Each structure stands twice: as structure tokens, then as C-alpha cells.
């Protein structure tokens, strides 16, 4: 069942889910899982990765997860681990839009909120000369004034933190490279061990990406995530891939499961984010057996 075709307005879908906040987590997650995958989850004897991810939402509590879902706090987490050199340089952090000096911003930058997720509340400016200050600040004000999540729509506990929402602006990585393709490497880690990797290409905000699934040595697998476009041309293994693996393994230690997202631009590695609930666990794969294979690595939830 494709519920997005039934209720096409994204904001309306979120409002409906907000109205249903009183529904117990276990029941809500069963419903959402069924609506989005076409099958009921087995919470008594879970074997699939996507089933175990639902239980991870309901059961597992680690205060560091609250830090790592805030886009500024996670930078402190990474720096405390000794990996500050991998952080994208920050231009400024703002509690209110009036604090932003638009004229002092560089020609290219990326603006985000500290609590956005899934590519939401991200604005990429590639030419400030084509951007009206009034329009930019109106967008930022809309982001800051949106209600703070009290209970996650998908019952993702780690996003229910108490950090105040702020705007922060980063440098646009790869801006010095003409027609730079930004490849995204998403490492699926279980207690510090990499199981598989998503290689993301042809990324455009608001559109489905091209996604390839790779093993821990970056060999392309004959596996497809059904809600994303298949990758037409496999990504080449980065020359500093082992350094990326070391970073992902180190950051993921202490978590039963986390996805570590990294970028690699002209041989320079950048930290992206840490995600504990990939796709909220509502995706399907071809072949379906991959869901079970990935689930074998998920032993604590």
C-alpha cells in the first residue's frame, strides 16, 4: 500500500500522525510498518533488520543517541572522539534569524536546522547573487517557528531531545571543484563492525537518489532498495576507503546499531551525520532475503 498516493499532501500526513500521538508505540509501529511494507512485523520472534529497528525505537535508550541526533551536539561528540578534522567548517550558529548577517555570508553555503532529519530543513545556496535576503530569512523563520517535536511521528525516541532548535550555516563542500558530484557513503554498523554500505549518487534535494548497496570491502552487491533508484554506474572505491572504515567503526562503537554517513570529496573525508533508524525501518529490498541477512547482525535492540 502506497499511503503517499492516498494522502498526497506531506504536511497533512504529518498532522494526521501527530493527532495519533496517543496511540501506544507498539500499535502505531505495527500499523505504520504494515502500511509501508505490506506485511505485519513479527515482534515476538524478529528476524528482519526492519523488524528489529522497530523494537530498537521502543526499547533501546542511550543518552548519547540524543546528542548524536542534534546536528551541533553530534559535532561535539565527533570532536571528543578525536575526529574534529573531519567536520565540515561552520560559518555561524544562530538562535534567531535577525542574528544572521546576510551580507557577510559567502557566495556559496548550506543552511540547516539543528534538528532536521531526512534531508528536511536543508537549504543549499550555490550563488548568493541569485538569492533574495528577504526570501532566505523568511524560510529560516519558518523553520525556527515550526513546533518542536514532543513525540516523534515514527516513534523515533532519539529525536525527542531537549536541545533548542537553532540555525547553523556550513561551508559548501566541493565548491572549489567545477561540477562536483557529492557522493555519500552510509556505513551500517553494529557494535563497531561494518555490515554493509549504501553508496549514494545523483543526489538532489526533494528527489529520489541513486542508491547502490556494497559489502564492507566496497564490492557492489546485487541488492536494491525498492524506494530508491538503482545506481546505474557503481561508485569507485575511494583511495582512502580504509580511513573511512576506521572512522565509521570508531564512531559506532557502543551502539548496537548506527548508520555513519561520510562524504569523500577529492580525497578529503567529511563527517555527515549519525542515523539510528535508517528509513525508520519502513523500506523493502530486492531480494527480500537481504532484510534477513542484515537482521543477523542486529543482536541487541
Characterise the protein shown here.
The protein starts with a helix and ends in a 6-residue tail after the last helix. The model has no long low-confidence stretch (mean pLDDT 92). The strands form three sheets. Strands 9-7-6-5-10-11 form a six-stranded mixed β-sheet, with helices on one face. It has a four-stranded antiparallel β-sheet with strand order 1-4-2-3. It is an alpha+beta fold and 301 residues long. The protein contains nine helices and twelve strands. β6 and β7 form a beta hairpin. α3 runs antiparallel to α4. It has one domain: D-amino Acid Aminotransferase, Chain A, domain 1, CATH 3.30.470.
In short:
With 301 residues, the chain is of the alpha+beta class.
Topology record:
Blueprint: H1 3-6, H2 10-19, H3 25-37, H4 49-59, H5 63-68, H6 73-80, E1 90-94, E2 109-113, E3 122-125, H7 133-145, E4 167-171, E5 184-190, E6 193-201, E7 210-215, E8 224-225, E9 229-230, H8 241-252, E10 258-265, E11 268-275, E12 285-286, H9 289-295
Parallel strand pairs: 7-9
Antiparallel strand pairs: 1-4, 2-3, 2-4, 5-6, 5-10, 6-7, 8-12, 10-11
Helix pairs in contact: 3-4, 4-9
Amino acid at each position: 500500500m502506497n499511503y503517499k498516493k492516498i494522502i498526497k499532501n506531506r504536511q497533512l500526513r504529518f498532522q494526521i500522525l501527530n493527532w495519533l500521538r496517543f496511540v501506544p508505540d507498539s500499535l502505531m509501529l505495527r500499523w505504520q510498518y504494515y502500511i509501508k511494507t505490506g506485511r505485519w512485523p513479527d515482534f515476538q520472534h524478529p528476524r528482519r533488520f526492519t523488524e528489529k529497528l522497530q523494537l530498537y525505537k521502543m526499547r533501546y535508550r542511550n543518552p548519547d543517541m540524543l546528542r548524536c541526533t542534534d546536528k551541533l551536539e553530534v559535532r561535539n561528540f565527533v570532536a571528543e572522539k578525536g575526529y574534529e578534522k573531519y567536520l565540515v567548517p561552520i560559518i555561524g550558529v544562530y538562535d534567531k534569524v535577525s542574528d544572521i548577517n546576510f551580507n557577510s555570508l559567502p557566495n556559496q553555503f548550506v543552511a540547516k536546522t539543528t534538528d532536521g532529519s531526512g534531508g528536511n530543513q536543508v537549504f543549499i545556496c550555490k550563488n548568493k547573487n541569485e538569492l533574495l535576503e528577504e526570501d532566505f530569512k523568511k524560510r529560516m523563520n519558518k523553520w525556527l517557528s515550526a513546533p518542536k517535536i514532543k513525540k516523534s511521528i515514527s516513534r523515533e525516541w532519539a529525536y525527542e531531545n531537549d536541545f533548542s532548535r537553532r540555525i547553523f550555516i556550513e561551508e559548501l563542500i566541493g565548491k572549489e571543484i567545477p561540477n562536483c558530484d557529492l557522493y555519500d557513503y552510509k556505513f551500517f554498523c553494529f557494535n563497531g563492525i561494518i555490515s554493509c554500505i549504501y553508496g549514494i549518487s545523483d543526489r538532489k534535494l526533494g528527489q529520489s537518489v541513486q542508491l547502490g548497496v556494497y559489502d564492507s570491502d566496497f564490492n557492489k552487491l546485487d541488492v536494491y532498495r525498492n524506494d530508491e533508484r538503482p545506481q546505474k554506474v557503481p561508485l569507485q572505491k575511494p583511495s582512502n576507503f580504509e580511513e573511512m572504515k576506521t572512522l565509521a567503526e570508531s564512531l559506532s562503537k557502543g551502539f548496537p546499531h548506527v548508520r555513519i554517513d561520510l562524504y569523500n570529496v577529492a580525497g578529503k573525508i567529511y563527517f555527515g551525520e549519525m542515523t539510528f533508524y535508517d528509513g525508520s525501518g519502513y523500506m523493502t529490498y530486492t531480494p527480500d532475503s537481504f532484510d534477513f541477512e542484515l537482521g543477523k547482525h542486529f543482536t541487541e535492540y
